[in-house]
Task: structure prediction
Amino acid sequence: MLRRTLMATAAATAMLGGMAMADGHEPVKVGFVYVGPIGDGGWTYEHHQGLLAVQEEFGDAVETVFVESVPEGPDAERVMTQMALEGADLIFTTSFGYMDPTINVAAQFPDVRFEHATGYKTADNVSNYSARFYEGRAVQGHIAGQITESNTIGYIASFPIPEVIRGINAAYLHAKEVNPDVDFKIIWVYTWFDPAKEADAATTLIEQGADVILQHTDSTAPQAAAAAANEAGAKVYTFGQASDMIEFAPLPRVSSIIDNWAPYYIERTQAVIDGTWESVSTWDGMDTGMVEIGEMTDAIPEDVRASAQEMIDAITAGDYHPFTGPINRQDGTVWLAEGATAEDFGDDGIAGMNFYVEGLTAEIPQ
Amino acid sequence: MLSLEKRPQPSRTWTLASPIVAVLLTMIAGAGLFAALGQDPIEALTKIFYEPLFGEFSFFYLPQLLIKGAPLVAIALGLSIGFRAGIWNIGAEGQYIIGALCGAGVALALYPSEARWLVFPAMLLAGALGGFAWAMIPGLLRVRFGTNEILVSLMLVYVAEQLLASMALGLMRNPDGQGFPGSRNMARMDAATSWIDQSNGMHWGVVIALIGVIFVYVLFAKHILGFQIKLAGQAPRAAAFSGVNPARLVLFCLGASGALAGLAGLTEVAGPSGIVSIDFNVGYGFTAIIVAFLGRLHPVGILLAGTLMALTYIGGDVAQSSLGLPGAAIQVFQGMLLFFLLAVDVLTNYRVRLRERGAA
Result:
């Protein structure tokens, strides 16, 4: 037995020259770190769909591993280090709070490539990537402003970071555009995934008169809360978040924003296999299909569906930017002049957006 | 027919044996759970318990044990003082947060001072005082108005979480952070870091946990106060007759556990975590309750229990990524530990008797 092993090793060494065998035949190992459980039905679910797509695309050439429900802090650093130690070649860290841990771990493993979602830091072996969810929020606002009867739209917000604030602003601007009387009620739950808190927030918003609920949290609990309210005689509309959440259609879920990570994950894995991986910053939207709008149900009037589709087409074609002036900040100062479109980065860029637009009455928590 | 009969004295054998039996039962039930999930149960248990300690990458996992175990041990030690006296501080999570905020407040206020001799001791003091003060709220309310410290301390956790969010978004937000929430990284400030040797997992929280073990051991073994605490827990009336001041005892127990939790929070925020962020706390204050009971409220037991708990966290993540076990299975596994401990603990106070059917 021992002899055979030795011989096999010797043969392999002779034929392939030692380490070359590892390069040629071992599958590329791709790791995913998730902030919620893969069954959340929203954010993490869609990232996991991306993992499955990578596995499907490359088959035996790729090995995928993941750890779910990893808190954003020292635990994340440990999980990433562990993946790198166990031979991962490429690691996707899929939450904003993983940014510093990713940078720290990447510094210790220069040969492992990291991809951090929704942050702003990069390194030689760290890319970042995100989607222009605000494009989808604009469409949501456009629909929500027209289907609301109480003129009150509830918004379940997670953390007051630019991504979330940007979404609120985009939705509000486009709701206001079609319905000047619209009012936004915003509840901050300080979590990405907590079905109980999310359901409480949805119920509170409904009790305060909101008949459209938008959510920036990852579970389907707000959809279920709205469905329960509808069974009790209310008429509440919701939108699927991060994932289609089609099981709640046609009511309360009337449409959705779908994050489609699969093409990006496949492309980046391919780059590692080809040896062409480089650190990049990616921020894609409807144009590449990273942001999709889920089917609009019959609960939305036909003319609204048509105008929403026009907006989707215009954004996809690059003809319309959801942040096009004139737009003032909440304090009344000018942010974008007539006809100007927002920059991505810089002092006035939307990447670091930390203010509400004019008309929103709430305050960003400090 | 089986029946339970109360023992005149808690069984000493079972007091010591029940945690071990509970761990074994958890492993057996866990093996069944993993098998039901289609995994090789032996391999899963090996990944959880053996891999971090003796596996290929133990050089990385062993220091992680210190990092994960230190706050659990420090907080559980504090809790054990009160639990022995029948004073139930359930809000260590809140005291942990407030300790971290007070210590971080000092560090950030003095930034960019490089005088470590001043900054770090001041942080330690602030962290301990912060946790102490937060625990004094349920303490004073109980002493003065007879409120229930379980409810008050628990409710104050949620208040502390709101304060934490507010600090991370407002007062303590990194001015160079491009508008994103979260403070400056204190682990990278020479004057404020709680790291002693990061590659070996050594930080001041570990030191404090170890000193705490000795401190609590001496308190119960040698000190009159330790005796009074035990007496108050076992025989409150006898304690009152022997001159124990119940109000002082409540304040001491809550204050000591608050201060230890505060120190754990401070050393975490200035070391492993580094920043005050909205979701800085990950439940150490609650897990420590399990650790305290698993360790039989004894300092050495708590040290072992804290290490075991840390091991299940670290090994659980290993099993997740290498075997694809779902995260929830690991949480169920940890939950079973407490479940079996409580179940087996029945044997400490009760004897199982086989009674004849029909007998009066």
Summary: The longest strand of chain B covers residues 2-6. The radius of gyration of chain B is 22 Å. The first helix of chain B runs from residue 12 to 36. Chain B has a mean pLDDT of 91.
